[in-house]
Amino acid sequence: MPQYHPISFERHGNQQWKRYSNYLFAATDAIAPLTAPELAKAVLSLAIAFVPVNDRFTVVAVQGLQPNQNLLVLPDGRWAGDYIPARYRGHPFALLDSTDGQQVLCIDEAGDHLTSEGGEHFFDEPGKPSQVINELLTFLGHVKTADAATRQMCDVLQQYQLIVPWPLTVQTAEGDKTVEGLFRVDEAAFNALPAEALFHIRQAGALPLVYCQLLSMQNIAKLSQLAVLHAQIQAQQAAATPAAALSQGAELNLEFLKQGDTLRFS
Question: For residue 257, is pLDDT > 50?
Fold first, then answer.
């Protein structure tokens, strides 16, 4: 579990930090937050959905078919998708709110990110963050701003009752499995909107969100296929076959992700 601490010269001035080398830190994330600026790229490979958070909706990438499962992270830590959510690209840092309402750059100290040598410095000199730390602060600030704007877009869609449950049934080797807790755009209700409502949604910048979410639903099929791949890898490793080479960085052929359809929507 992450343990974030604000970065300070007193705490981190004599320490260094290491960049992540794999995505195992995200292996239990069934969903990941997305922001509106990400959607144009995310829609090409990820399934996009809404989830409720404190009576509001937020936009997420669907990464697993059951809790604590991220099928996009392979057993050796590689990412099996074409787009990596911004949430992960800032790891192990996060921009969090302090008790006085200020935004503070923090680092997750629960992992092996801190080191005494061989890493990157937090500060060039007392009170002067390094260039990389400043770049991370800027990047995470943009993500934070985009997240707030995206939630406002969701509020507008919710106002017109366009966000509805997404009933999803996945066909697996063990039989049909129901995925619950996801929401989608009600396409029929959207198409029936009066001109004034449609204008309001467009003015709020939420039209691309509507289209990207609807188009992305077909990408759910890739998760079902990745589930099969994970099961095959686990079976091979359990049998101690040469598939152990996967843990040594061998190339995987993921062309099958572009084919087939093992899902149905009800």
Answer: no
